[in-house]
Design brief:
Radius of gyration: 22 Å
Order of helices and strands: HEHHEEEEEH
Strand content: 15-25%
Number of helices: 4
Strand order of the largest sheet: 1-3-2
Length: 149
């Protein structure tokens, strides 16, 4: 593994730390090329994975979705909004010994775990609520608000 510090790697690390959230590789890449248009997508992706492997940043693997990256932090859980796809932290204690509760390991040596909950974020819930109210008003205008039957 190449552990030499490079300008590109420092730039990727700095960008992930500036996000203060959970960014996909594409989001990190698009932030970087705003300031440094000559940096390639491959360089960003390679350095994100290397930094994650080195433990400098955290890789959040999302089943059925793109990997996300966040600044180095203690282990914790995440929730993915099923509507917008964004990732958020979950405020609950990390269960360090969860693997010990596995009854049949089927020969596996368990090293760690990641849990990603599914839900609907407050922003999407608010949008849904506004859309439902708009739909109800639309129905009222066309079905009953002025009908004489």
């Amino acid at each position: 593994m190449d552990t030499r510090s490079t300008i590109q790697r420092s730039l990727v690390l700095e960008t992930v730390n500036e996000v203060h959230g959970h960014a996909t590789a594409d989001e990190v890449y698009h932030r970087i090329i705003l300031k440094y248009p000559t940096v390639s997508r491959g360089t960003v992706y390679r350095n994100l994975n290397l930094l994650a492997d080195m433990g400098e940043i955290r890789r959040v693997e999302v089943p059925g979705g793109a990997e996300h990256f966040e600044h180095k932090s203690p282990p914790h859980y995440h929730v993915r909004c099923v509507q917008c796809g964004r990732i958020f932290d979950v405020d609950m204690p990390f269960m360090t010994d969860l693997e010990k509760h596995i009854r049949d390991t089927r020969g596996f040596q368990f090293l760690s775990h990641d849990i990603v909950f599914k839900g609907i974020c407050p922003e999407c819930r608010e949008k849904d609520s506004k859309n439902h109210m708009s739909d109800d008003r639309h129905k009222d205008l066309h079905h009953g608000a002025g009908d004489k039957t």
